[in-house]
Amino acid sequence: MEESNTTTTTLVPAVARAAQILDLLANALKPLPSNEISRQLGIPKSSTANLCIELENLGFIVRKENGYKLGRKLVELGGKYLSGIDALREYYDLCSSLPILSRESSRIAILDNTDVLYLGKYEGRQQIRLTANIGDRFPAICTATGKALLALLPEGEAVERYKENPAGFVQMTDKSIKNITQLKKELDETRKRGYAIDNEEATPGVVCFAIALSGLREDTSPVAVSATVLSQRLSPEFKQSLLNDLFALGKSLSRSYIMVQSFR
User: Fold this and answer.
1) Cα–Cα distance between 156 and 240 in angstroms, integer?
2) Beta bridge pairs of residue 68
3) From start to end of 153-215, where are the E strands?
4) Which among 81, 110, 193, 248 is least surrounded, fewest beta carbons within 10 Å?
5) Could you tell me if 196 and 190 are in contact, meaning their C-beta atoms sit under 8 angstroms apart?
6) Which helix (H) or strand (E) holds 211?
7) What is the pLDDT of residues 220-245, one digit of tens each?
């Protein structure tokens, strides 16, 4: 009998292993055969093969190029989840109605440990297309949404997350935050000004502003909304107008928007 080289502590190991397989395929650069999935996750080959067959039968994964990749069922489930968040529909409506933000790019995101996960994106009329799409993860320290959400955590918690996970200090550009000292300073400044800034830390030539909301009206999970522009267009007057729209967006979406109150 094959034995896994990992210790299972979950109540339903098969479900946990299936979730591990989906996470692995989500981050893989190419389709993975079941024996490679088994090797990377430390799951017995026979168990891996059976799980892959069942996930394939359910539409969660598909065979391609002698391996497996994510299937369309996940898109369907993700779409149903997002469509059930009323505030996301309102987010798009508000973005399109605001005088300045309607022409710019915006994102709405949540925090997952040291990453941000994007739930929605609004593309304005400017010739700028960001790489962050719905469902994408980005290092929180490189994004305005991520820094806004980290600043909303209880004091000291953000620093502890990075002490436990130093790999979270991902360098997307030479302006990205590099260490704990820079992180603490940036989060302190974010709390004082009431909004976060990504000053070409994710993409050269692109600046992003974000505010954190303690929760959407029907959900208490913190989210952040952002506005993104090319740095060459960012005059002081335009910046303030953009921030005014961003605050208006946050106020309409949230029942309690702490960071904006601190700015005002």
Assistant:
1) 30
2) 32, 63
3) 196-199, 206-213
4) 81
5) yes
6) strand 206-213
7) 678 899 999 999 999 999 999 999 99
